[in-house]
DNA sequence: AATGAATGAGGATTCATTCAT
DNA sequence: CATGAATGAATCCTCATTCAT
């Protein structure tokens, strides 16, 4: 397993640790499952291959996870929570207003923080993206948390910056959509489309934020 | 099968018709395969289910497509070509310059045209998006056509509009990236994320283009 | 197809010609079947492969041969008849006594004649040897003709030469067995075990016959 | 299963036991496979039939033998080794010279010993004979062991007896060939051609050896 | 807790054979 | 006569899951 993978797994374990203490074997199983699912997709991965890669018996997997799908969910579900964690902080708004006087400060903070997180969890994010359309449990969780909480939070943020005149008075969902599109578009290009390129992340982020700020600036 | 699906299939058949005349059974097989693959994903779809849905014997599938993967590729590969067809027109640049005096005209034409195409081919596009990361044949075709041809074309377009002062003099790849992010972000929200919403497409497109144009406008 | 194969097929066609006039396609089918059966065995050969190799449609085979087994039998059955043809000549005994005053003359004539025949029909003989244990129809024919007719003929021959003192007075079936073993043993080595060796057939045959004659010579 | 079959299987298990301990199910699988392969041939035997005959699930076969061919090889390959075991003994020559002062003693010992072995392993030997021409792995092993080791050993033996004047000075390979032909010819008739006959084996062997000894005796 | 042998349903694919053209 | 599309049973093999040890 590559060192990169090691890091991802470490990060992911920190997540699951929050839920429960895992045995040594359990850790190996999760490592192997993440590696396998992200390489071949969930449906094309076999539990026997995962067991083999984890160095445990086939039965051991099912002692810890009732079904193969259970294993998937135990990997992906906590990731979804973590992924949007900053947006559901208790004192999100309070922190926000004091910490980020300008919309671009907010964008800069968010993109840097979430990119760092994504970088440490790429394989699981890849798994999540692929299985979301097929796993109704994940979809439910996704809609519940992202669509509702995160999107609402972002709308609040945008509306806050519209109210003090930093952002043009278009429907807030539009401002959210275009902001998010640009930043996620960058992440997607950076991590999935052309990961092998030698990106100047700082520069690209600045261009992106500058673009968003001008695109959303109040018209004269 | 829903009427929507009927339309997609009709569009897709028009594509394959260009290549070869298909028998009645072949059409049924493709219909069933598209439906099944897009609902469950390629790996989780079984040839027996496809055969049943198509109303043919399982063996019939393999008379027309040597393997299950062949069936997938025969559906997805031509779609990729069609998807980027406008960008590889012979006289793309000539048409472009005379037809679209402004960058926003170009963006508007492209997004409307491609959205119409996508709308008629959603299931296949969904299949394509899902299988791209796992099917190396598709990846190869994708990199060859999209990454090279389309991206280069878009860079040329952007550079053209930069040279006449419509677009700010940032690296052209950045301008391409943010433009594409915004438009694809909209398509993604429209078709996949919240398809059930009652979108005012015209309005959303105008907001998006306005955002892009201001984001890329030369700074005063 | 090798030239050797060409010859075999030619010989085999002469055989089948006795039974019925064959169309051009029929000939091609038989050629392809012989080649395939002898290379992979009957059970492991598919009719579609034979059809392809013969350059005919799959259905064409079944127009001429009701089943795959029919095709096999139509190839092998006539071969069995031909293989032992000399022994069931009408005037076998008459010819024998006048033509071969000594047992070794008889052996020499038989081995040379049958080796020539075998050389021209190796693939079909190989097929026959392999399928005999599994095809009861062939077994029945084999027992009927070989075991009864040929073996009886050979016993008569041996007894004839015993009666005039050329061969030791052991049970005739033993003399037949050892004679046949030595000659077939040679054919087997020559054609199947080590066909690539540069055999001096004349010499080997003489050694073999000399061995048989001394082994069967009356003891002093 | 007949008592005869029971014995064969017992003998065969003794062989495999040397390699590894087998589970109860594994033994049943091997029994069923030997029975089926020898009755219908390898290609015409289905794993489902073998599983049924063995009283196990079809999947169980593939837990122990990766493929159907693996199952075949695990049956046949060790048999080949056993079949020629006496000829590759470490102190073959030493034993030979002291134990068998005459060529006929050697022949008698070998034929009796190998017939006993063959009698206990007929079905596997039948399988081996049938599959040798189609399984390149077996052919390789056969050529390596039989052709090289056994044949060379027999040549050495014959040359030893030629040097002390017991056998005529013909090329040793000829003496080997005719000797082996007569003995194998007998085995073949005894076990495969006419197994139902009431053979007086002792007598037939004596006739055969007497025939060989006279056939190879130095000419006066 | 961990094992791994056992399961049998289901996987993709091939088969011999039929029949409308 | 010849075709080749169509069949569906049968092929070998893999799968997720269970359970006695």
TrEMBL record, chains A, B, C, D:
One MF term in GO for this entry?
A: DNA binding
Record InterPro entries: Homeodomain-like_sf (IPR009057), HTH-type_Tx_Regulator (IPR050624), HTH_TetR (IPR001647), Tet_transcr_reg_TetR-rel_C_sf (IPR036271)
Q: Which residues bind DNA?
A: 46-65
One Pfam match = TetR_N
Top-level lineage group = Bacteria
The record's keywords, sorted A to Z, are:
DNA-binding
Q: Where is the HTH tetR-type domain?
A: 23-83
Gene3D superfamilies recorded for this chain? Answer: Homeodomain-like, Tetracycline Repressor, domain 2
PANTHER family to which the protein is assigned, alphabetical: ACREF/ENVCD OPERON REPRESSOR-RELATED, ACREF_ENVCD OPERON REPRESSOR-RELATED
Supply the name of the protein.
Answer: TetR/AcrR family transcriptional regulator
Give the organism the record lists: Paenibacillus psychroresistens
The organism's taxonomic lineage, starting at the top = Bacteria, Bacillati, Bacillota, Bacilli, Bacillales
């Amino acid at each position: 397993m590559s060192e990169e993978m090691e890091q991802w797994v470490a990060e992911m374990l920190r997540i699951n640790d929050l839920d429960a203490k895992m045995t040594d074997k359990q850790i190996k199983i999760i490592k192997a499952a993440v590696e396998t699912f992200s390489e071949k997709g969930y449906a094309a991965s076999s539990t026997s291959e995962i067991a083999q890669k984890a160095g445990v018996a086939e039965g051991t997997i099912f002692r810890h996870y009732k079904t193969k799908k259970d294993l998937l969910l135990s990997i992906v579900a906590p990731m979804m929570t973590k992924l949007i964690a900053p947006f559901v902080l208790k004192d999100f708004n309070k922190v926000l207003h004091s910490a980020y006087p300008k919309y671009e400060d907010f964008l800069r903070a968010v993109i840097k923080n979430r990119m760092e997180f994504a970088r440490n969890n790429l394989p699981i994010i890849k798994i999540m993206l692929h299985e979301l359309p097929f796993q109704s449990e994940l979809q439910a969780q996704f809609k519940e948390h992202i669509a509702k909480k995160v999107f609402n939070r972002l709308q609040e943020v945008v509306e806050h910056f519209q109210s003090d005149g930093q952002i043009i008075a278009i429907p807030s969902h539009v401002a959210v959509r275009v902001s998010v599109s640009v930043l996620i578009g960058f992440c997607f290009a950076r991590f999935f489309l052309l990961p092998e390129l030698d990106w100047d992340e700082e520069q690209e982020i600045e261009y992106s934020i500058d673009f968003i700020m001008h695109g959303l600036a109040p018209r004269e």
